[in-house]
Amino acid sequence: MLLALDCTGFDQDGLGIGAVGDQTVHVAGAVPGDRLEVAILHRSPHGPHAWARLVRVVGASPDRLAPACPNVGRCGGCMMQCAAYPLQVAHKQVQVERALTGLGGAIEPLVPSPRVLGYRNKVKLVAAARPGGAVVLGAYAPRSHRIIDMAGCRVGEPPLDPIARTLARLCSQHAVVPFHERTHKGTLRYVILRANHEGRVLAVLVTAARAFAAGGALAQELHAQHPEVAGVVQNVNPARGGALLGAEEHPLHGAAELPDRVGEVGLKLSARAFFQINRVQAAALYQATLAAAAPTGSDTVVDFYSGVGGIALTVAPHAGRVLAVESDPAAADCARRSASAAGLGNVSVVAADATAGAAIIERADLVILDPPRKGCAADLLRAAARLRPRRMVYVSCSLPALARDLSTLQALGYQAAWTRPFDLFPHTPHIETLTVLDRTTRAA
Question: What is the pTM of this model?
Answer without folding.
Answer: 0.94
